Amino acid sequence: MDSETHITGSVDLGEFLEAYLPEDEALAGARLRAEQLGCLPVSCAAGSALSFLAAGLQAKAVVEIGTGAGVSGLYLLRGMTRDGVLTSIDLEQEFHRSARRTFLDAGFPAGRTRLIMGRALDVLPRLTSGGYDFVFADAARLEYPHYFEQGVELLRPGGIIAFHSVLAAGSIADPTRREPELLALRDVARAVRDDPRLVPTLLPLGSGLLVAAVATP
Fold this sequence. Notes:
Layout: H1 3-19, H2 25-37, H3 44-57, E1 61-65, H4 71-79, E2 85-90, H5 93-105, E3 113-117, H6 120-123, E4 132-137, H7 144-154, E5 155-164, H8 180-194, E6 198-203, E7 209-214
Parallel strand pairs: 1-2, 1-4, 2-3, 4-5
Antiparallel strand pairs: 5-7, 6-7
Helix pairs in contact: 2-5, 3-4
């Protein structure tokens, strides 16, 4: 197989993965609002992975760092238990307003979400240690190492922490690239990999999901 054929096949496979689980009107509307707000949501494949992980955990309590227009939050809610509550943190009031519309359009009542306005590094220490099933981070990349330190403390044994966009379009693997965001992504990838409390993996879905489960005693 020549290189051109190989590249074409890879592109086709990526498109297949993204189209495998088509999105409904609620998600399409949320993506449109995300585009209007200038925020980049999770891809279809990454979003479906979030639903899958939340369902596998039978998650009742989830923390989302970075609300956006509610795309990832909707994927998380669809995997959670019927009485589960999503806590989503963001600095932008307009993002929360858009996310509320997304959740309501999809049929989730207001009681299923707790939207907290503020800086995640200020909010996370106020949440209950060991009280959550899943922590998902999709916000300031420079703060990922700090989200990791605080996020793991929130998880119960068996809980999962996940970081979005860790591959940075492949730039994370280029040692000549030394931008601050890339250094932060490398730091969190290294911290997750080397933490003896965790069972980690790196999923090449969307722009990359770094995922780790807290090992049970």
